[in-house]
Amino acid sequence: MGRRERGRDRQRSRLHAGSLTWDSIPGLQDHTLGCSGLVLAAGRPPVRLRAVQAPRFLTVLCRARVVAMQGADSDQPFKRPRCDGSPRTPPNTRSAAAGRSSGRELRPDHQSWGPEQVCCFLKRSGFGDPRLLERFRGSRICLSYYNFSTLGDRKKLQACIQQLSEIHVDAMKVINDPIHGHIELHPLLIRIIDTPQFQRLRYIKQLGGSYYIFPGASHNRFEHSLGVGYLAGCLVRALREKQPELQISGRDVLCVQIAGLCHDLGHGPFSHMFDGRFIPLARPNVKWTHEQGSVMMFEHLVNSNGLKAVMEQYGLIPEEDICFIKEQITGPLETPIKDSLWPYKGRPKEKSFLYEIVANKRNGIDVDKWDYFARDCHHLGIQNNFDYQRFLKFARVCEVDNRKRICTRDKEVGNLYDMFHTRNTLHRRAYQHKVGNIIDTMITDAFLKADPYIEITGAEGKKYHISTAIDDMEAFTKLTDNIFLEILYSSDPNLNEAREILKKIEYRDLYKYVGETKPKGKIRIERENYKSLPEEIARAKPSDIPLEAELKAEDLIVDVINMDYGMEDKNPIDHVRFYCKSDLSKAVMITKDQVSEFLPERFAEQLIRVYCKKTDADTLFAVKQHFVHWCLIRDFTKPQDGDVVAPLITPRKAEWNNMDSAQSPDHFRERSKFKLRLFQDDSM
């Protein structure tokens, strides 16, 4: 028998004929390992590998881990490690010199390391779970106990613990997603998904009424939520791999994934139509957002399905981690005390970067956007210019104003501008499509008329309406897009008005689009003044133009749209920090003028669109004259078709006529007469 065969025999015997279990590592029995990766709970059955696989499994994992520990940012070419796990680094490189110096420091006393030195080594390597370290101290585990004699062996120990902590008795569920490919989800995520509260997202359209405009926009909140949960795990794991000193634990990874998965549980029928249009009109005194609904629904999901025990089984601490998950979705759960240093309770300030993954309140760069950019563009047929994979590659945590923030490489600033430009493009071409907004408005009108007559049973048999179901999560669980069909096919005479509006949508007999304008400069219409706009337009009657129809405010709908890069009129890149290749730990700011002269000067604008509920010719003619005259009075921009729909009004404002502004009043009178003749000819 050769030397290699004898070595394999000894290895197999040490592995108990191929059974690799937690019992194979003395001192780790019955220990919940939550230090890194996914969590194994105490008392779980042992994980076993076949005899042929076990030695190869350990060898491959340990060597791969040693190479990874050399540093993701190393500029040295990859070299296969030696048989003892030490890297094959050229002898004259800086990393080799560092290795030799560190080896001289460690080798003389490594066999005399006590439990405390071992704990310090594990903590520096990213294993900061106090329970693991306490177990090592309590059992007085030291390296000599295992007869490890080289630095390579010590690194193998670290790699084995790291990999074993991620092995599960319950297999990871694999889902084939059209955007991200085959994605793996943790068993706890599957338990959350397989509940009525989460499954309702299958029946809520991601883009609301846009499905009536874009036939491909049939996707729902369900698949978007799966994608966000997956991307949240990708980002937090990427940070953990690159920076073990951050001490990102398995609990942290799992909580971030759950927050991504559950961040949209609070959406109502037709998504943003519900909390953006319907609730403000149905309950104007209630300040309710879908993020608040998500937090309430998540708590209801956990309690009604008994998931606290399941969370504990997978190593979570419900009292702390449920709070942490909620905070990631909606921010601090309590109003922060003035001048308080840290408003969150789920995680300490040292892990502040974890709050920037699912819903980034600082600059808007988060995995929620990454998924809906890719998913919505895919279903809408719009080009997506942002590549989140590059952000994953270059993301690092740096110190910024005494907080740990997620930063990226300086060369990625252009990619981030592309991200916000993609957001703006999606809003202009899809989310704020003029016909899509008309359909959302009509559905809102139908829901408002049906609201008093729709009853939804909640907890303890109490009845709720569409607008009040947000107060009871059992009732809200039953409220989905299906309410549209319930009204449409109802025979209740109380729902006649609502039913007729929905029938108009089915027959494409929609409210008519009148026109669009926008305020000039920094002038903006404040939200509290939105309600008065239809009355203003109805009163803006041109004095010298005969109109056959009398316009009323209730005939008009004024839609005010705020277009921006996600932070109102601010440049979100001003709130992003970057690092340079020469110094990975120093965060720097990159100003707009350092990037390009072609970037926008302003990052927000307001669009004002007017629709008319009536469709007869006389009313439409009247409302167009009123609208153009109102734009002139308010000194807003001229509607694009203003010269066609109101040729008698547009010449009254010199700057609306481009090059004609310096010409005489006689010219305006002649031009007006000519346009009037054209208009009369067209109407004959």
Automatic annotation (TrEMBL):
One of its GO terms (molecular function) is dGTPase activity. Its main location: nucleus. One of its GO terms (cellular component) is nucleoplasm. The keyword Nucleus applies. Residues 221-373 form the HD domain. GO terms for biological process: dATP catabolic process; defense response to virus; dGTP catabolic process; DNA strand resection involved in replication fork processing; double-strand break repair via homologous recombination; innate immune response; negative regulation of type I interferon-mediated signaling pathway; protein homotetramerization. It catalyses: dTTP + H2O = thymidine + triphosphate + H(+); dGTP + H2O = 2'-deoxyguanosine + triphosphate + H(+); dATP + H2O = 2'-deoxyadenosine + triphosphate + H(+); dCTP + H2O = 2'-deoxycytidine + triphosphate + H(+). Residues 76-85 have a biased composition (Basic and acidic residues). Pfam families: HD. Keywords: Allosteric enzyme, Antiviral defense, Chromosome, DNA damage, DNA repair, DNA replication, GTP-binding, Hydrolase, Immunity, Innate immunity, Metal-binding, Nucleotide-binding, Nucleus, Zinc. It is found in: Chromosome; Nucleus. PROSITE patterns: HD. Residues 73-111 are annotated as: Disordered. CDD domains: HDc (cd00077). Belongs to the SAMHD1 family. This is Deoxynucleoside triphosphate triphosphohydrolase SAMHD1. The lineage of its organism: Eukaryota, Metazoa, Chordata, Craniata, Vertebrata.
